[in-house]
Write the structure tokens for this entry.
Amino acid sequence: MSQDKEREIQLQFLEEAQEYLDTIESVLLGLAGSHIDGQQMDAVLRAAHSVKGGAGMMGYHSLSQLAHRLEDSFKVLKAQRNSIVIDPELESLLLVAVDRLRQVLILNRKGTDVEQQWMVSVGTPVFDQLSSRLGDPVA
């Protein structure tokens, strides 16, 4: 496959990933104080899973890694949707997590990736906070 064709496929994936992130964000906005809807959780889980898998296949490892962590948070929210209340702080954390994915995606679109220092200092801390708050998904 030519390098131009490969880049075209990568850019097409990144466009789709942007749409998935838009879907996730639209579900999360205003979620604070409301009941977690099972169908909405399925939609955001599928979106995060699609970003994770596609990014991994395309070689966007940072994007895949962060999407995996977001997917894990959604798994916990879905499994415990009757016992977890999404307060403004949790909603904000989830939206910041989506923003971190967007930041990586923008760099990937430009043909670069985030630096390891960014991942450590900016990228992963919000996912660590989500994990501390929600716990890990159970098989």
Remarks:
- DSSP finds six helices and no strands in the chain.
- Residues 20 and 134 are 22 Å apart (CA to CA).
